[in-house]
Each structure stands twice: as C-alpha cells, then as structure tokens.
Design goal:
Helix 4 packs antiparallel against helix 5, helix 7 crosses helix 8 and helix 7 packs antiparallel against helix 9. The chain folds into two domains: 364 residues, no CATH class; 95 residues, Helix Hairpins (Orthogonal Bundle). 26% of the residues lie in helices and 30% in strands. The chain is rod-shaped, with a radius of gyration of 40 Å. The protein starts with 6 loop residues before the first strand and ends with a helix. The strands form eight sheets. Strands 10-14-18-22-26-30-33-36-39-41-44-47-50 form a 13-stranded parallel beta sheet. Strands 12-16-20-24-28-32-35-38-40-42-45-48 form a twelve-stranded parallel beta sheet. The chain has a ten-stranded parallel beta sheet with strand order 6-8-11-15-19-23-27-31-34-37, covered by helices on one side. The protein has nine helices and 52 strands. It is an alpha/beta fold.
Length: 583
C-alpha cells in the first residue's frame, strides 16, 4: 500500500473492472500517487461504483462487497438525508467487505450508527482512507471479527467512539494513522483477541477513555504513539493478557488513572515513555503479574499513588526512570520490584501495603522515602541486598519495623542480611539517626557472626572445635554484655553482675576450704566472710589494690582472672560511654 506520497489524482474510465474475487464493477478507477514535485511515483487500478449504486444496495438490503474498489464521498449521514431518515437511525449493512479499498471524501467517510451484519468477518484490511475524517461512531459489528489490519488513515482523525465490537477477533495490526485525534472512547471490545500490534498512531491525542475490553488477549505490542495525550482513564480490561511490550508512547501525557485490569498478565517491558507525566494513579489490578522490566521513562512524574494492587506483583527490574520522580504513595501491592534500577531522583515508597519491596542491586542517588508520615506504612519485607547507596533512605527503625523487614526475607543468606544491616547502619549515620544506627550495627554484627560460623563449619567440620566456642564467646561478651559497645548502661549492669558473681565465687571457695581471703590488718571493721569476699571482689575488679585483703589457694587464680576482666570491662564501658557522649 502506497503511503509516502504528497497528493493523488484520480481517473475514471468507462471500462469494467474485474476484482480478484471475480466481482465485476461497471467502471475502473486509476489512482496516480505523486510526490511534492508532481512526479508520479506509483499508480493502481480499482473497481468503481457510483455512490448512488452503493446506497441502492443498502436500501435493498443487498450484500455490499467493495473489495479492491474506489469509493468516493461515502457517508451514511448523507444516505440518511438521501432517504429522509433520522440522523441517528441505525443502518444495516449486510455482509459488508471493503478489503484493499480506496475511500476518498471531501468531508468525512461516515459509517456512524451502522450495524454490520456479517456471516463472517467485516474486513477493511489494507484499506486506504485517503481523505476525510473516518467515522464509525456508535456502530455495531455483529460479525465473527473485524479487520483493519494494514489500513491507512491518511487524514489521521478517526472516530470509533461508542463502537461495539462483538465477540471475535478485532485487528488493527500494522494500521497507520497520520496526525489527528484517534477516538475510542466508550467503545466495547467483545470477548476475543484485540490487536494493535505495530500500529502507528501518529501525532495527536489517542483516547480510550471508559473503553471496555470484555475478555481475551489485548496487544499494543511494538505500537508507536506519536506526540499527544494517550488517555486510558476508566478503561476496563477483562481476563486475558494485556501487552504494551516495546511500545513507544511518544511525548505527551500518558494517563492510566482509575483503570481496572483483570488480566492475568500485564506487559510494559522495554516500553519507551516520552517526555511527559505517566499516571497510573488509583489503578486497580486484580491477581496479576505486571512487567515493566527494561522500560524507559522520560522527564515527567511516574505516579502510582493510591494503586489498588494487593494481590499483584509488579516488576520494574533494570528500568530507567529518567529525570522525573517516582511515587507509590498510599498504594497497595503484593510485590514491588525495583531491582537493578538507577534511582537518580526522589522515590516515594510510602505504601499502604506491600508484602515484598525489592531494591536489590539498585543505585540510589537521591532520596528513597519509606518513612511513615500520615498513615502506617505496612511493608512486610524489604531486600536491600547489593544496593549502591549514594543518596539517602528515609526510614525509621521502629515505625518501619526495620529488623522484621530484613530478617523476614525468605531466601536471603546470613551474609546478605548482615550486609543489608551494614548499609542501613551507614545510612542512619548520615541522616543523624544515631540510635537507629546502633540498632542496625548490632544486627549487622550478629548476622555477620552467624555467617562466619556457618561458613567455617561448612568448609571443614572439624572447624567446629574452635568456631563454636569463638561464636559463643562473642555472643556473651560483645553482644549480651554490651550490645557491641552501643549501650553503656548494658555494660555497667554487666560490670555489677561480674563483680557479684566473683564475690559469690570467693565466698563459695571460702566455705568449701578451696580458697581463702585474709585481712592483712586484722579485720578492724569486724566484717563477715561474705562481706569480705565481696569487698575483695570489688578492689580486685577495679584494680584498686589497697593490700588490706589478699587471697590464698584457688582464690589467687580467680583473683587474677577477675583483675583482667575488670580492666577489660572498664575499658569496654569507657568506649561505650564516650561513643554515646560524642554523638
């Protein structure tokens, strides 16, 4: 089909024309296609009926076959005037076909308020709408399918509003629309495949507002929208597969607000969104899997606020979000994956509900906001594995339940969990959340110790001889006694406990005869053996060394151990205390 021409000339010959399906027309039309220099670049012959002859066939309820025909000034609006009928009277066309036809009109090509009653399919396949707006508004296709494949809408303005495509295949595959408005508002596509594969929509607004797709696969795969608004607001997609795979949306607002989707699979992978806002606000997707993998967004806002997708998994893996912000404020998802993405601008992840948020392997250069403000953020699990944190994550340890977010990952390794806590520890430090930093650091060290133990035993089983004692020593001394030097209060309590335990030990040794403490000054205060045991524990633990009480037998050994323990614990307390004061 010739599409690259500047204008065309028509020559009507009084010679019959035999179409490829053996239908003879009384005349022949020759279309000459010319370039802007007036040169003929191609020509083609068509059969030709007078428009009045077509109207007579409609009037007599005859089959209308316009395959390979040139049709001039066809208009059902004009037909109604010709037959003195009401402008909105439904006109029935019986077994209509216009495959490979050429429609030409000074005004509009009008099929509005028409009932196509076909035993088979209605075909405008490879049809050339050369001039005039194409109007199918409020038409009904009672057929087994509708084909506009490879059709060329040269004027660009096409009105399919309120059209009812009944059950069967609806094909706009490889159709070409020039610049103009494409209106599918309130159209109803029945239960069957709907294909806009590789359709070229051209510049101008494309409107699918309140359009209903009752069921079957719907494909806009490799379609190309030009500059202008793409409006799908309030559209409804039934069960099947919805695909915008590798679709180019061009510049201009892309609006999917309040769309309802029941399809089991939604594909936007490798789609390219132009320099405009992309709105999915309040979209409702039921029990589906939505794929935006490797999609490319432009300069506008990408908005999923208030999305109702509680049972839906949505994947943006390896997508590029351009220079606009990305927001999921107060939305609901089962899974939201931003794996391996470049998040260069503000990302609002304050979701009302989400089972799994996956940020693994992503590069964060600006702000990722998860911190609750005016409602509870109910995220069950977050994967921070392998992220490169150049920017900031706004998150609160208690309000966001950070420990549960990370530890509830079903398939994360101990080392991976440890690394995620380490990243958050650094993030909390930069954002000045020092108490949260301490909590993240403690969890990092705990999971790091578990990971080291597991790896050591995994390499060689005999490593258990030293690995387990080492792990339990760290668990007792570094974790339980001081929370890895993050809690001076915990260390101070541990000091009191150690002093008390050694005091009890000295008293036990005294009464059992295995050890003894003596007063070198004759016990002037007349204190009991129990009190002297605790006094000796105190001056030994704090390395005071007055010399008024000294040990014998096994008490000497344990006194040496307590002296070392005291030096260590006091140093431990000093580190923890100074760390708190300095921050």
């Amino acid at each position: 089909m010739e599409t690259n021409y500047s204008y065309y000339n028509i020559e009507i010959k009084n010679a019959p024309f035999l179409t490829p399906n053996n239908i003879q027309t009384p005349k022949t039309a020759i279309i000459f296609f010319c370039n802007d220099r007036g040169e003929i670049i191609n020509f083609r012959e068509y059969g030709y009926y007078e428009t009045k002859d077509i109207y007579d066939k409609i009037e007599n309820n005859k089959e209308i076959n316009l395959d390979n025909c040139y049709v001039k000034n066809f208009s059902l609006k004009a037909y109604r005037l010709y037959t003195l009928q009401d402008p909105k009277t439904m006109i029935e066309l019986k077994n209509f076909s216009a495959k490979n036809a050429f429609f030409d009109s000074k005004y509009s090509i009008d099929f509005s308020f028409c009932i196509f009653k076909n035993d088979n399919v209605v075909s405008f396949e490879n049809t050339h709408f050369a001039s005039g707006k194409v109007i199918f508004a409020s038409s009904i296709f009672n057929s087994k399918g509708v084909f506009f494949s490879y059709a060329f809408f040269r004027d660009g303005n096409a009105d399919f509003s309120k059209v009812h495509f009944n059950e069967g295949e609806t094909q706009f595959k490889n159709a070409i629309f020039n610049k103009g408005e494409k209106d599918f508002q309130y159209a109803i596509f029945g239960k069957g495949t709907v294909s806009f594969i590789n359709t070229q929509f051209g510049d101008g607004d494309t409107l699918f507002i309140n359009t209903i797709f009752e069921g079957g696969d719907i494909s806009f795969k490799v379609a190309n929208f030009g500059d202008g608004k793409k409006d799908f607001r309030y559209a409804k997609f039934g069960k099947g597969e919805l695909s915008f795979d590798r679709t180019q949306f061009g510049n201009g607002l892309i609006d999917f607000r309040t769309v309802e989707i029941e399809t089991e699979k939604v594909i936007f992978s490798r789609s390219i969104f132009g320099k405009s806002d992309v709105l999915f606000e309040a979209i409702e997707i039921k029990n589906s899997r939505v794929n935006f993998k490797n999609a490319e967004f432009g300069e506008g806002i990408v908005n999923f606020n208030l999305a109702e997708c509680s049972n839906t998994k949505i994947f943006f893996d390896r997508s590029y979000f351009g220079s606009g912000s990305l927001t999921f404020y107060n939305s609901k998802f089962n899974t939201l994956s931003l794996k391996s993405c470049h998040l260069d601008y503000y990302i609002d992840l304050r979701m009302a509900e989400c089972q799994l948020l996956d940020l693994s392997d992503s590069i964060i250069r600006d702000i990722v906001d998860i911190k609750p403000f005016d409602f509870n953020v109910k995220i069950n699990s977050v994967n921070f594995e392998g992220i490169r944190l150049i920017g900031r994550i706004y998150i609160d340890w208690n309000k966001n339940r950070v420990k549960q977010l990370i530890t509830q990952q079903s398939d994360a390794s101990l080392s991976s969990i440890a690394e995620q806590f380490r990243v958050l520890k650094q993030n909390f430090n930069v954002t000045g959340q020092y108490n949260d930093e301490d909590k993240a650091y403690v969890e990092f060290k705990r999971f790091e110790s578990k990971s080291i133990l597991k790896e050591a035993v995994k390499q060689k089983k005999w490593n258990s001889i030293w690995a387990y004692p080492s792990y339990w020593f760290k668990w007792l001394v570094f974790d339980k006694m001081g929370l890895y030097a993050t809690s001076p209060t915990r260390v101070f309590i541990s000091v009191i406990c150690v002093w008390f335990l050694f005091g009890c030990l000295y008293y036990f040794l005294e009464i059992s005869g295995l050890g003894k403490t003596f007063s070198s000054v004759g016990n002037p205060d007349k204190i009991s053996i129990l009190a002297q045991s605790f006094y000796h524990s105190a001056i030994t633990f704090f390395t005071i060394g007055y010399g008024d009480v000294f040990p014998e037998k096994l008490t000497r050994l344990f006194s040496a151990i307590e002296g070392f323990t005291g030096v260590f614990m006091m140093s431990y307390f000093t580190v923890a205390f100074v760390r708190k004061i300095l921050r």
